[in-house]
Each structure stands twice: as structure tokens, then as C-alpha cells.
Amino acid sequence: MKDRARIYVQAGAGGDGCLSFRREAHVPKGGPDGGDGGRGGDVVLVCDDSLRDLEHFRRSSHFRARRGGHGQGSQRHGADGPLLEIGVPPGTEVVVEADGTHHDLVAPGQRAVVARGGSGGRGNRRFRGPTHQTPRFAERGLSGDESWLRLQLKLLADVGLVGLPNAGKSSLLSRLTRAAPKVADYPFTTLVPVLGTLHAEDRQLVIADIPGLIEGASAGAGLGHDFLAHVERTRLLVHVLDLAPLDGSDPVDNHATIERELELHDPRLAALPRILALSKADLVDTATADAARSDWQGRLGAEVPVLLTSSATHQGLDDLAALLLQRVPLQKPEAGATGGLGAGGWEQIGGPADSALESLPEHRVFRPAPPRAFRIQRTGPHEFMVSGQGVERLVARYDLENEDAMAHLERRLKGIGVIRALEEAGFAPGDDVEIAGVAFELDPS
Predict the structure, then answer these.
(1) Full set of structural domains in the chain with CATH
(2) Is the pTM of this model over 0.85?
(3) What distance in Å separates the CA atoms of residue 4 and residue 155, rounded to the nearest whole number?
(4) What's residue 233's pLDDT?
């Protein structure tokens, strides 16, 4: 089972604005009519209840959303790029390496935007004004966000295997899933919980082998609370009961011991659906096994299925797998359980309404505050450098070989205070200014 992954995501770039003038018979001065470019597609992580591990990221680790469409003449705007949705299992923690943003996806249907598409460029019609009626430039679309993401899965097990030490849980798990727990013929073979994934055609289930419980576990005896805590979030328990214990103990007493300890630890556990798996059926004759199954079915009633299983001969394991998939339905996505990033600061993510997840603590997403707009640095007697994401993205929008575009860019730089900041730093006409690797000779007048 893969519980860590590192993937690269890139949002779509915005489409370019269009430089166009209306051309129509008998209309010699039709004016600018270039449309705007569309916004690039976002990359969104979606909490998908049909997934249980990060195995699918072994095959593909690079994800790129499509760019927005370019603007066209006759005021036709480019289409926005489609969202790129990436499914992750419940319990996935995400760290965006580019800015340190954290996301915690626990509820089916929960969404988190991890890379935002670039904005589209404006067409030349948007720059028409009373004093500049024929703008001969348009904006370029900006590139989308891109970053590596670190994914870590804190698994929420769907099914918990409980039973006394050496009841056959580890062997059962190894046959149902690809897990490889240590198996031996002495008690407490399992010292830590072991997780495995049961794969079906269209979904997965996480099965947890909860290490052996003993009488007094709810009070901390034996391996105690450390192990009982792992069954608190499961949605179904499979009680694995040895038909022929090697120590000669009574299976009825063994069953009662486990059920009592679970109820003492947390009454909610007593209310979880159950399946009773009578293990090691190959060690007794068929008549004895069938009689034991009928006896237990009568004791527990029709609501608790009773199956005869054998990890050695694979008896009953296919029926058990099918029953698990049937008894653990997919959770429906919550309409309000969406999570995106706002302008900054803390943002609370909506919690699930499903009763099995009501106890999950509310969580928040923190997005670091954006850096200062720009910074002025003197690099020589007559050289200055302006840095800052906002200014660099502004320069990237325009064709610097276009005189109209350069004049508009200088007006924008003056409007946001860059020219004033340069003058305060000692800038004089004729000095070189470098922004985003491009040298300018700005006219501060």
C-alpha cells in the first residue's frame, strides 16, 4: 500500500487577447474589436471515496491543465480552460511546496484548488478611450501556477479485523489484500496495526488488522488503548474467531471477551455492523464446521452474517470479500464540503454530515500572505532592478517590441508607484531599469 507520493501540477495558461480592427464594407473606421483570452484551467484535488491509497500516482506524477482559448476578432472571447480534477483518497494531507499551503481532505466530495489557471489577456478593444481610440496592442495571457505537491495519506480504515491473539487475522488479511503481515504460531505476532487494500473493479476498501486484544484491553492491559484507537474510525468490524483454539479455550468465551472490551472502550464500537468470520475451518471436519456456523448464526441473528473461512485453503474468502464490498457502501459527496483558498489567511472547510465522520475535528487551510508588491534595488551607478511577482507578471503581459504596448506599460508602472519608487532611489532619465530579466529605458515624465 502506497501512502506517500510527490506529484507535479501545472495550471493552464491564460489565452492571449486579440489585436483586431473591424473590417466591413463602407465602414472605413470600424474601430478595435479584439476579444479577450480565456482563463487557464485550475488543478483541483477531489476527495474520492472510491480510492484508498496513492498507488495510482506511481504510473503518473505530472498533471497539466489546458490553457484558455485566445481571443478573436469581432469581440469574440476565448473559452476558459477546463478544470483538471485529480482524485485522492479520504485522509490525504497535501502540502503545496511552492508556497507552503496545507490542505487536509477527509470528506468525500471535498475539493481543494492547488494550482490556479493564469488570467487571460485583454483584447485591444478594452484599451480604447477618448484619447486613444485605436490601440494597436493587446495583452498576453499569463502562465498558470505550478508546483510540486507532497501527498501523505493518513488512512481511514473501512474495515477492522478484531479478535484474540493468534485468531488468524493476519493470515486472513494477507489473502484478501496485498499486505504482508508477519505470521507465526504464537500470540502477539502483530505488534503494530497492518493495513491492506482490497481491490475491486471500481473501488477499493482499506482493511486494518487490529493487533490482538486481551481481557482488560479497554483499561490498558496488554496492548490496550494503542490498538483500540485504530478501530474507532472503521465503518464495519469483522470479528475473526478461531474455531479450534490451540489453548483449548471456549470460542464462546473468546467472542464475549472481545465484544466486551470493544464496548467498554467506546460504546459506538458496539453499534458498528459486524461480520463473524469463523477462521481455520480446515482444521475441523466439515460437519463440525457447519454445525458451528449454524449455532453462531442462531446466537447472533440474521443481521450478523456468519462465514466459514480458511486462509490455508481459501475457503469462504471470495464470499467475505464480496460481503465487505456490499456492506461498506460508497459515501455520497457532500455538497457543502468544498474547500478552496480565499484571498489569504485562515479559511474553514465545511465538514461532512455523515454520522461516521461527525466526530472528525474541523480543520482549516492556511495560505501564507502574499509578498510585497515590488522591491527596488540599485545594482550599479546607473542601473536599477525592480523585482516582485506582480510587476514581473505585468511586464509578461505585453509585447515589448510594440511602441503602443510599451507606452501603456509605462503608464501602468507609474500608476502602481514603481516610477516614484525609482526616483526616490536616485533614478534619472537615461538609467537602465531591469524587470524580469528585461532592460528598459523608462521615461519618468
Answers:
(1) 1-155+330-369 (2.70.210.12), 159-327 (3.40.50.300), 375-440 (3.30.300.350)
(2) no
(3) 11
(4) 61
